Amino acid sequence: MSDLNEFQNILEYRFKDEALLTLALTHPSVAHELGRSIQHNQRLEFLGDAVLGLVLTRELYDKFTEVSEGPLTKARAQMINRRTLAEQAKTIRLQDFLILSRGEEANLGRSRASALADAFEAVIGAIFLDGGYDAARVFVLNSFRQAFGELTSIPTLDNPKGELQEMLQSKSPEAPQYHLAQATGPDHDREFECVVTHCGVELGRGKGKSKKSAESEAAIAGLAKLKAEKAAADQVV
Q1: Are strands 177-184 and 191-198 parallel, antiparallel or unpaired?
Q2: Which of 11, 108, 175, 226 is buried deepest, with most CB atoms within 10 A?
Q3: Catalytic pick among 49, 104, 130, 217
Q4: How many CB atoms lie within 10 A of CB 58?
């Protein structure tokens, strides 16, 4: 495991109690492999999930004063999903600091989206316990501003596959194609990766606990790519 001082520099938060950070980084496989009562990060993940939800709910509530409960709920769900949290974890190099069992390490657990997403929420929970709500809020908003800008528009993807197809139909009658790229992990914890292509060009990839969710995540990635390309083209014009 890498130096916790290095990780705290990346987090831009210094723990008063480093044991909380160590706990947040400890994968449940450690306790399962050693077969004794060792604490791991699932309880902190539970806490961090609630803190994350509260921070983003308040941010959405304050920024979009004219938006009703339904779209706000959908926007929050869109922001707090396994793919997004795993990407946030990679941004802070969390995979380099995870504490895994030998078996989980050999099974490529360090790159598994579920492990990264869970540990990211656990880190939020640890910051909350160590520094309070304000410290956790600063960390969450700094993390999500990088991915979502300043929340100047609200994400409302009820049906990402349908929205992607509708966007592509303006260019070509050919429908997007979804392909299973790979399935990894043990039978009880499979993770699927799907690719969406259009006219032979890859638009995006997504991962999920089912093929359906992986396809939806791929569609979201495809939509983001197309919207970014359109924005860049509009700026040139």
Answers
A1: antiparallel
A2: 11
A3: 49
A4: 12
Query: 79 with 148: CB under 8 angstroms?
Result: yes
Active site residue 217: no
In what order do the strands lie in the sheet containing 191-198?
177-184, 191-198, 201-208
Name the DSSP class of 174.
Answer: P
Q: Among 121, 191, 193, 217, which one carries the catalytic annotation?
A: 121
According to DSSP, the β-strands at 177-184 and 201-208 are unpaired
62 part of the active site = no
Predicted local confidence at residue 16, as pLDDT: 96
pLDDT band at 216 (very low <50, low <70, confident <90, very high): confident
Q: Is the pLDDT confidence value at 149 over 70?
A: no
Q: Is the pTM of this model over 0.70?
A: no
List the one residue out of 127, 105, 116, 111 whose CA is nearest residue 82: 116
Is the pLDDT score of 218 beyond 90? no
> Do 14 and 95 form a contact (C-beta atoms < 8 A)?
no
DSSP 184: E
- pLDDT for the residue numbered 1: 45
